[in-house]
Recover the amino acids of this structure.
């Protein structure tokens, strides 16, 4: 049995720590990010969120796209030499992997839950994707197709990404 466990741990299909990219949310003015670009004074995290090491190195910049901008904004990255994880800083108010703000997503979902309608100012397909993610997160509490106010409020009160289709759902804040 010990051989099987060892084999599973060394499996090439199991992601290693270097394959993870974590998002750290930081209170930043998006307009200021546009104006200053790479000169924006990003804070340096005190510790690695993965392994708590104090050794974090600057790892350059990467472009990320947000609603309302036709071009990518430069986001600062840090790399931990201990666990080899790469952490990307991101303005607070945006979920990892989503271009729209949390407020926009929240208003869309609230309108769907309360009025059973999509917002006309946003693409229906995008809102449907968010709602499917919300249903996925809600299925942890009750397995229903229709999401009621109680489930919606319960999900909001927790520190999770409401619309993700993933089990790794926590929001890491700086």
């Amino acid at each position: 049995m010990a051989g099987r466990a060892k084999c599973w741990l060394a499996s090439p299909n199991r992601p290693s720590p270097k394959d993870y990219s974590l998002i750290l949310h930081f209170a930043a003015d998006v307009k200021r990010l546009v104006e200053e670009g790479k000169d924006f004074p990003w804070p340096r995290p005190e510790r690695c969120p993965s392994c708590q090491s104090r050794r974090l190195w600057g790892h350059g910049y990467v472009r990320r796209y947000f609603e309302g901008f036709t071009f990518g904004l430069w986001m600062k990255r840090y790399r931990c030499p201990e666990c080899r994880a790469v952490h990307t800083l991101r303005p607070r108010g945006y979920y990892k992997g989503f271009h729209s703000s949390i407020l926009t997503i929240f208003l869309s979902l609230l309108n769907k839950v309360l009025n059973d309608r999509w917002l006309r100012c946003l693409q229906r397909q995008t809102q449907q994707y968010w709602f499917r993610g919300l249903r996925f997160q809600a299925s942890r509490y009750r397995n229903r197709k229709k999401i009621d106010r109680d489930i919606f409020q319960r999900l909001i009160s927790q520190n999770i990404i409401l619309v993700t289709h993933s089990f790794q759902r926590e929001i890491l804040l700086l």
Remarks:
- Residues 16-91 form one domain.
- Residues 1-21 have pLDDT under 50 and may be disordered.
- The longest strand covers residues 57-64.
- The chain has two domains: 16-91, 102-156.
